[in-house]
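Sample log: Adenosine deaminase.
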Amino acid sequence: MHLSDNPATPAAATVSEWIRRAPKAVLHDHLDGGLRPATIVELAREHGYTALPTEDPAELAVWFRDAADSGSLERYLETFAHTCAVMQTREALQRIAAECAEDLAADGVVYAEIRYAPEQHLEGGLTLDEVVEAVNDGFREGERRAGGRITVRTLLTGMRHTDRSLEIAQLTVAHRENGVAGFDIAGGEIGNPPARHLPAFQHLKRENCHFTIHAGEAVGAESIHEAVQVCGTERIGHGVRITDDIAEDGTLGRLASYVRDNRIALEVCPTSNLQTGAAKDYASHPIDELRRLGFRITLNTDNRLVSGTTMSEEFQHMVDAFGYGPEVFEEFTVAALDAAFLPLPERQRLIDEVVRPGYAAL
Ligand SMILES: O=c1[nH]cnc2c1ncn2[C@@H]1O[C@H](CO)[C@@H](O)[C@H]1O
Ligand SMILES: [Zn+2]
């Protein structure tokens, strides 16, 4: 089923008040997939980018969601050409990062790891280091504007189809004291297995640096196996196709067992999965089965603009599909902080001083 066939799904879907107030943590959210549509229009005008499908912000938001709602990851990813086109200067990157932090904080997000691929922001003449510095400055500004209600860290993404992943891994290590919490690889999964980027992962391991890998979204269990057992990933972006290794009666194969028993977090993004064809609809999305089987599940947006969603809306979809109450979202939020690439005392402080009291007060 495509989202556009479902009248309950547009971004304006009503969200219960308690969901907005609930403290949330997001581990999987792309900076270049979550811009404000009005910001894209303004920046496009400023920079003379004329290829936008429309200059009306509301129409643009609908365009992204519909264009991404194709059933194919490759077509979903084509829409990012329009966001990356306006993310080529220091000012634009700073502004977009600051607005991202503000928007997440307004949605009740208290901790966010935001990822982006620095190599996609060099067309205006910035260096990789300048890109990272601009985004970091923007996030610090956004945290200030949100009155300290949110903590943001970044993940630097290497693109699966290019050959710069080792360089991006080195960039991650170089900026680790400066708001960069880890590394990721993203992009089209078919034909680009994660082991192509082994030198990047080996460098990160040697440097004791965190990483996650998009796997098990467009390709099945073999991609997850490679990400976990060959590349040594700590978390899995999406990972929903781990169900390939689970029998109908719930018996786990060896890979599924390994992932569950080692508490390797799955960064699950239900709405995005519906758009790329990784799942059919919310009600049959494997998140509920995986949760009941004991996997470490985190709930995420993937791309707030491109998927037309927010953390609150993802929560609401789960309430509607599975009847989840606050206790399940508290579990997802604590799971996200347990799996966050943040030092243990900081994770523990967020759980004890922000998340637990926030849910107790709902
Ligand atoms: O769900 C996804 N799967 C794979 N790649 C993705 C997904 N969402 C976004 N990107 C890719 O990651 C880049 C850096 O943020 C984006 O430009 C997009 O190409
Ligand atoms: Zn993603």
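Observation: The longest strand covers residues 151-159.
Observation: Confidence is low (pLDDT under 50) at residues 1-12.
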